[in-house]
Amino acid sequence: MTVGDEDQDYAELIEERTAQRLEPVGQVRVSGEPMPEIAQAAPQEPAEPRSGQEVTQAVCAACHANDFQNAPQIGDEQAWAERADKGLATLVDHSVNGFGNMPAQSGSASEDEIRKAVIHMAEESGVQLGE
After folding, report:
1. d(Cα 29, Cα 38) in Å, to the nearest integer?
2. How far is CA 50 from CA 58, 59, 63, 116, in A?
3. Could you tell me the residue range of the domain that residue 81 belongs to?
4. How far from 129 is each of 86, 94, 112, CA to CA, in Å?
5. Residue 66 lies in a domain
6. Does 102 fall in a domain?
7. Torsion angle of C-alpha atoms 23, 29, 35, 41, degrees rounded to 10
8. What is the pTM of this model?
9. Which residues, 6 or more positions from 51, have their beta carbon under 8 angstroms from its beta carbon?
10. 24 domain residue, yes or no
11. What total of structural domains would you count in the chain?
12. In sequence order, which ranges of the chain are alpha helices (DSSP H)?
């Protein structure tokens, strides 16, 4: 390979990229013409729900493992015991919809995944919430 070949390769690359940029981005359909066939994407299989530990690591640990804005820390039995008195349904509702400094997490995980994460964090703190 010589320097001239590299220049030729570069020129071909520039020509190819320029042609790609000049390609039409769409087509106009004139009245009476049939609609083009559009490929349909295959339906996606629903993802398996994450475990409580996975959701805790991905979503909850940012606050509950870093002493952020009075979030009950994973491992703080007293803090979790106080919250456990409110019941699992209330804790899940607060997690899903937000409460006080706790932002709503419904966009980060399903309600079932959030329930598993709440149970996981409480159990890691020595508190049993049950299902």
Report:
1. 14
2. 10, 11, 19, 9
3. 52-124
4. 10, 15, 15
5. yes
6. yes
7. 40
8. 0.65
9. 116, 120
10. no
11. 1
12. 3-22, 52-55, 61-64, 77-84, 88-97, 111-124
- State which amino acid sits at residue 129: L
Q: What is the CA radius of gyration of the chain?
A: 27
CA distance 64 to 120: 12
Cα 70 to the center of its chain, rounded Å? 24
For tokens 């013409």, name the residue. Answer: 33
Unique residue bearing structure tokens 């991905």:
58
Question: What does the alpha-carbon distance between residue 66 and residue 121 come to, in Å, rounded to a whole number?
Answer: 13
In a domain, 99, yes or no: yes
Residue 24's SS3 state is coil
- pLDDT of 10 reads 85
Low-confidence ranges of the chain (pLDDT < 70): 1-5, 46, 130-131
Q: Phi/psi at 2 (nearest 5 deg)? A: -115, 170
pLDDT of residue 4: 55
Work out the number of other CB atoms within 10 angstroms of the CB of residue 119. 20
CATH number at residue 108: 1.10.760.10
